[in-house]
C-alpha cells in the first residue's frame, strides 16, 4: 500500500517529492534509491504504464539487428506518479513532468558526458512517452508498451526491453 501523507491523509503525491538530478559525474555503478518511492498518485489519463526495471534485449538500427550494440543488457528504471516520470540508467537520473512544457521537462545532463546541460520537453501522446530535446528540431525519443515489452527509440535505433520487475 502506498505511503500516506503526513497525518495519515491521502497517499503521497508526486509534488510532495523533490525533483532529482544526475549527481556530478553520473551515479557510477550503483543506481541510487528510487525517487518516487511511496508516491501513491495514480497515473494521468493517457500515460502508458512504464514503471519497473527494464533490460535491453535487442536493438535494431536501419532495419537490422545489432547483436553487439552498446546498450544491449543495459538496465533502465522507470518510476511514475501522476504526470511525473523518472528514468534512471546509464549513470543518469532524468526526472520530468510529462506536461509538454519546457519548464517541467528534463533539466539535467547528457548521458554521454555527464556535463553537457540538456533541456527536454516531455509529454504523453497517444499512449506513448515522448521526449523532444530543446534546440534539436525533429528529434524525438519515445517509450511505449508493445506485447509486454517496452520499445525505446533513441537517436537512430530502436531497442526492445523486457521488464525485470514491475
Low-confidence stretches: 1-6
**Proper CATH architecture:** Beta Barrel
- H/I helix tally: 0
N-to-C SSE string, H for helix and E for strand: EEEEEEEEEEE
Query: By helix and strand content, what is the structural category?
Result: mainly beta
CATH topology: Lipocalin
What is the beta-strand fraction? Answer: 35-45%
Principal-axis shape equals globular
- How many whole angstroms does the radius of gyration measure? 16 Å
What is the residue-averaged pLDDT?
A: 93
Helix content: under 10%
The total number of structural domains is 1
| CATH domain class name | Mainly Beta
Summarize the biggest pleated sheet.
11 strands, antiparallel
Strands, total number: 11
Terminal CA distance: 15 Å
| Annotated CATH homologous superfamily | Calycin beta-barrel core domain
What this model shows, in words?
The chain has 166 residues and is mainly beta. It has a single domain, classed as Calycin beta-barrel core domain (Lipocalin, Beta Barrel), CATH 2.40.128.20. The chain is built from no helices and 11 strands. Strands 1, 2, 3, 4, 5, 6, 7, 8, 9, 10 and 11 form an 11-stranded antiparallel sheet that branches. Strand 6 (106-109) and strand 7 (117-125) form a beta hairpin. The radius of gyration is 16 Å and the shape is globular.
Task: Name some characteristics of this structure.
mainly beta, 11 strands, 0% helix
Summarize the structure.
The protein has 166 residues and is mainly β.
Write the layout of secondary structure elements.
Layout: E1 52-61, E2 64-65, E3 75-81, E4 84-89, E5 92-97, E6 106-109, E7 117-125, E8 128-133, E9 141-146, E10 149-154, E11 157-165
Antiparallel strand pairs: 1-2, 1-3, 1-11, 3-4, 4-5, 6-7, 7-8, 8-9, 9-10, 10-11
